[in-house]
């Protein structure tokens, strides 16, 4: 199946350029330019100077970590409770060792607790205060227009040139993300067109196009959820009952140094294949992340001790590109030049959305 490996390189050469760089625009595109140059070819880009008018850029980053309770955000949301995601490692919706068998892996979801927003912000902005707990406000249920509706006037309700390019439909969901440098997001993809606007701090993305699906070694993992006791300060990881399996990407692009050789030998298609696209999205910039692109995300905190972003999820078009992707992933691919250690497990469309 050398044709599959050839496809990886052809996509880069024909559509994306083979330099592993995500194109940057210094001003917002017109709707026609955005549709023609990025949406139709399913090509990411970073747009500068598109949200300079947002009050959020100045208002949300005012607090220092030890003053989070006095910040504009805390004052605006003083009476609000939000969904705070807690993990012991900062890796929610990611693979973790099974409690009963550490040599096996499960798909671990965060413990979610309702928390008064000022308390949530203190936990996030001061990560060294309780190093055994990593807090991340990352609810993905249109939370900006529900839990954080008091902040609605600080951002645009939608990205006008993107809305026009996508046919005029408004975003299906708008989400707010508040985290720190301890939180990572593992490789995954979303069935949405994503406009990701960073307000404070920086987001560091690793991107792979949908054609690289085999390089992520998507396999079925039993679902589990963290439980947290505020009395003991300890986490437990419990398998769901009845057992449910989640298709998830197996590759960690940043394995510990002592495990690097092992990971390279387990996942050669990723580590020895074409270089992924990497980019950093800074405060005031928007990343257009096309539907079905695989992405891994890290973050660096801003002056207020947090990384804050707002993303707009627009429905993707289930057109011929989606049919092509389904055909490609249905191939049980075994590289003639890079032997897979295990058979590729076919993915289903039930994979959860996460960033």
* Structural class category: alpha+beta
Neighbour order of strands in the largest sheet: 1-2-16-10-18-8
CATH topology of the domain at 2-83 and 145-217 and 251-330: Jelly Rolls
Order of helices and strands: HEHEHHEEEEHEHEEEEEEEHHEEEEH
Give descriptors for this structure.
disordered C terminus; alpha+beta; five-stranded mixed beta sheet; 355 residues; Cupin_8; six-stranded mixed beta sheet; 32% strand; Jelly Rolls
Describe this structure as you would to a colleague.
Belongs to the JARID1 histone demethylase family. It holds the Pfam family Cupin_8. This is JmjC domain-containing protein. With about 350 residues, the protein is an alpha+beta fold. The protein has a domain at about 1-85 and about 145-215 and about 250-330: Sandwich (Jelly Rolls). Helix content is about 20%, strand content about 30%. It is built from nine helices and 18 strands. It has helices at about 1-15, 30-40, 55-60, 70-75, 115-125, 160-165, 260-265, 270, 320-330; strands at about 25, 45, 80-85, 95-100, 100-110, 110-115, 135, 175-180, 185-190, 190-200, 200-210, 220-230, 235-240, 245-250, 275-280, 285-290, 295-300, 305-315. The strands form four sheets. A six-stranded mixed β-sheet has the order 1-2-16-10-18-8. The longest helix is centred in the N-terminal third of the chain and has 15 residues, at about 1-15. The model is unreliable at about 335-355 (pLDDT under 50).
């Amino acid at each position: 199946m050398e044709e599959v490996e050839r496809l990886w390189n052809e996509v880069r050469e024909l559509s994306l350029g083979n330099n592993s760089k995500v194109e940057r625009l210094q001003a917002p595109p017109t709707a026609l330019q955005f549709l023609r140059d990025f949406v139709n070819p399913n090509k990411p880009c970073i747009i500068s100077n598109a949200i300079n008018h947002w009050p959020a850029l100045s208002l949300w980053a005012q607090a220092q970590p030890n003053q989070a309770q006095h910040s504009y955000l805390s004052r605006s949301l003083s009476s609000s409770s939000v969904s705070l995601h807690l993990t012991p490692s900062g890796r929610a919706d990611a693979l973790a060792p099974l409690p009963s068998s550490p040599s096996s892996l499960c798909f671990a979801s965060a413990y979610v607790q309702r928390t008064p927003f000022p308390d949530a912000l203190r936990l996030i902005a001061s990560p060294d205060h309780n190093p055994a707990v990593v807090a991340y406000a990352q609810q993905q249920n249109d939370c900006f227009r529900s839990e954080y509706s008091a902040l609605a006037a600080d951002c645009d309700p939608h990205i006008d040139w993107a809305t026009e390019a996508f046919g005029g439909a408004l975003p299906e969901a708008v989400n707010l993300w508040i985290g720190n440098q301890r939180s990572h997001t593992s490789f995954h993809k979303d069935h949405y067109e994503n406009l990701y606007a960073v307000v404070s701090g920086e987001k560091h993305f690793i991107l792979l196009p949908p054609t690289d699906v085999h390089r992520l070694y998507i396999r079925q993992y039993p679902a589990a959820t963290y439980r947290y006791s505020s009395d003991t300060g300890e986490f437990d990881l419990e398998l769901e009952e009845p057992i449910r399996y989640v298709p998830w990407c197996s590759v960690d692009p940043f394995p510990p140094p002592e495990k690097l050789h092992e990971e390279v030998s387990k996942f050669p298609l990723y580590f020895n294949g074409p270089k992924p696209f990497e980019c950093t999205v800074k405060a005031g910039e928007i990343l257009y992340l096309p539907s079905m692109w695989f992405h891994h995300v890290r973050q660096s905190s801003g002056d207020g001790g947090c990384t804050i972003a707002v993303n707009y999820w627009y429905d993707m078009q289930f057109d011929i590109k989606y049919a092509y992707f389904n055909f490609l992933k249905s191939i049980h691919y075994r590289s003639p030049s890079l032997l897979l250690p295990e058979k590729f497990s076919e993915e289903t469309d039930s994979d959860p959305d996460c960033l």
